[in-house]
Amino acid sequence: MTSLILFGVFAILLLINLPIALAIIFATLVSMLMTVDTLPALTTIAQRLTAGIDSFALLAIPYFILSGYLMGQGGIAHRLISFSKVLVGRLPGGLAIVNVISCALFGSISGSAVAATSAIGGFMIPAMEKEGYKKPFGTAVTVTAATTGMLIPPSNILIIYSLASGGVSIAALFIAGYLPGILVTVSLILAAVLYVKRNNIQTLSKESIEPFFPAFFGAIPSLFLIFLIIGGIIGGIFTPTEAGAIAVLYSLILSLVFYRQITVKDLYPILLKTVNTTAIVMLLIGASSAMSWLMSYASIPQTISHMLLTLSENPLLILLIINITLLVVGTFMDMTPAVLIFTPIFLPVAESLGISPLHFGIMMILNLSIGLCTPPVGSVLFVGCSIGKVSISEVIKPILPLYAAMFIALVLVTMFPAISEFLPRAFGLI
């Protein structure tokens, strides 16, 4: 009864477009009022809202959000695009490949798929149209490739999964995201190349590609951030939270002093956007903590686990059911609340089948990344269509092969845990 009330009220509130954090809080409150006394219910929710965000690891989130905004306005995108052109611009489908690689690089540096879509798409979508690509396809490439930054660190969503899973190592998650992120990137590149060959689009001319060394040296300071953050975490020089602070300092120096793309006056609106985004994320985390407590109190995860395990003891079949569920969830729920709500439900099932929390987390993030570029609530898809000035209906046809590429990558990551676990194991993190 508790689960029916909880998820029923939650669904109704979502249908009337109540902000998801408030929907979580009100659904939890209604369910608790019907199972415990009024005063304990209110007290418990207040306690869980506070306890949910009382974590040292969460301090990394506002730091990485701020560094992402600094990178987004600091002249990084143009230099990464120039560097990608030098690397792959002369290959068949060169500009589409440049788009994918640029989005992956910028997404990993900024930690935001929306930022990657805005920064890279604003330049690449018109450039691809000029070279003979249809605008809907350029938009489709941008929005799908931008999601790879959710897997390639530093990634805020991996930090949130660490919290929701009960403490999976953030460093291990960061390292684990590399191979799956590269796999998705390569899959999208292959899909884009097939599109180019089918439509006989010409490669880039030599005149449109900068000389190698200026492009290479221009991109080095931006790319060094990845090595600085990950190298420092793996080497034990600093924690992920401290790495976030270092990322802010490095991004500030790079954007303000080295590239000189922003001024001191630009810092106030950047800080304001950081505060707004951080407040939304923290409210979601606190609200989801209250819902997770109620689900645990009502034994909802254990009940769902028992139901799934009675269907089959085959791990691949259970993972298929979980993946299908998450794919559906990702089409109408943003990634952060989905991770916070469904990790406590599905992770115990995965662990009972011998699946590591690390592997499950990477699989879950990859799965929900597809939802970022899927209607009806794909935030990255909406941003991309706005930048490309195309409708969602126009993008659906060219984006289908790219969806297929991401699904294939998801299947491979699901079936072969070594893709996620090889690097963390090699570095002694698991």
UniProtKB/TrEMBL annotation:
Keyword annotations: Cell inner membrane, Cell membrane, Membrane, Transmembrane, Transmembrane helix, Transport
Family annotation (InterPro entries): DctM (IPR010656), TRAP_DctM (IPR004681)
Any one GO CC term of the record: plasma membrane
PANTHER family: SIALIC ACID TRAP TRANSPORTER PERMEASE PROTEIN SIAT-RELATED, TRAP TRANSPORTER LARGE PERMEASE PROTEIN
Pfam family, one: DctM
Record domain TRAP C4-dicarboxylate transport system permease DctM subunit: where: 7-419
Taxonomic classification: Bacteria, Pseudomonadati, Pseudomonadota, Gammaproteobacteria, Alteromonadales
The protein's name: TRAP transporter large permease protein
Example GO molecular function: transmembrane transporter activity
Subcellular location: Cell inner membrane
Transmembrane segments: 6-35, 56-76, 96-125, 137-164, 170-196, 216-238, 244-262, 274-295, 315-332, 339-358, 364-387, 399-419
The species this protein was found in: Catenovulum maritimum
Purpose: Part of the tripartite ATP-independent periplasmic (TRAP) transport system.
Topology term for the membrane: Multi-pass membrane protein
Homology family: Belongs to the TRAP transporter large permease family.
Organism domain of life: Bacteria
Quaternary state and interactors: The complex comprises the extracytoplasmic solute receptor protein and the two transmembrane proteins.
